[in-house]
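Practice record 12: protein with adenosine monophosphate.
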Amino acid sequence: MPEPSPVLIVGSMALDSVRTPVGEVKDALGGAADYSSVAASFFAPVRLVGVVGDDFPREHLDYLTSRGIDLAGVEIVPGGRTFRWAGYYDFDLNIAHTLDTQLNVFADFQPKLPDAYRRAQYVFLANIDPELQLQVLSQVENPALTVCDTMNFWIEGKPDALKEVLRRVDIAFMNDAEARQLTGKLSIIKAAKALQDLGPKTVIIKKGEHGALLFHGGQHFAAPSYPLEDIADPTGAGDSFAGGFIGYVASRGDTSMATLRKAVVYGSVLASYNVEDFSLNRMRRLTDADIAARYRAFQEIAYFEAMDEATV
Ligand code: AMP
């Protein structure tokens, strides 16, 4: 197998306060870039671009480093306050209710990529201000694959910048509600096509606990979700999905439909583990053997026999 290429990731690095029907955490490690970097780090080296204040606990940076994540692109603003998100989930765990979003140090962030980052082949623009996503994209020299994610906050707040991001990336991730909101289409199939018309050849629609759909050119693939008995906190499911996805693609070094289908399954594996505990706590205990075991479990759930010739 080829050496995995490093994945460049930009996105929110956060302290999250989250309540779900089974518990809550305050100022816990979170953020789209943190979830996706840790998920990707199981497959490929990661180079992280982001910003935190000096209130961001040192142990979180040490944990990211322990996962082999390069933090040369992370700025620590003296006296600055880290991005914070507060939200809660009721029994419909697919719906995150935002209570508070504080951009803090992200409000004035001007990412400047270290030289080694500019030649990154795999780029993941995780959820953050689409203008920052564009600034990062314009500093990368000749990427093989660019992928973006976003959320309702930016669809409502910066739709034009977001559409510019979509024009320039190869793959877009969105959850079903966001895809409907951005395109105005009720049908998920029509929404995915409308997103493809905006730019990305490949669109991945995440349906929370109901799996994910991959649209690639004119083909599509449906991945199931894993029937988890215990869900603690869905925060970061989408980010760990995307991180697992791009990490796996970078480890293979190709973007064929077969690789993308497997990447969707690896993304689903990472997301399914992530929701078993709050913050990144489950990923801290995750092993390669766990990932392999659940990949096989996914394969079994999705398998079915060929139709009987005589039935219809
Ligand atoms: P998800 O994978 O969609 O559950 O993403 C959850 C993460 O998104 C949380 O850890 C938050 O810190 C982060 N987040 C929430 N709001 C925003 C925002 N407006 N921009 C960037 N990241 C955000």
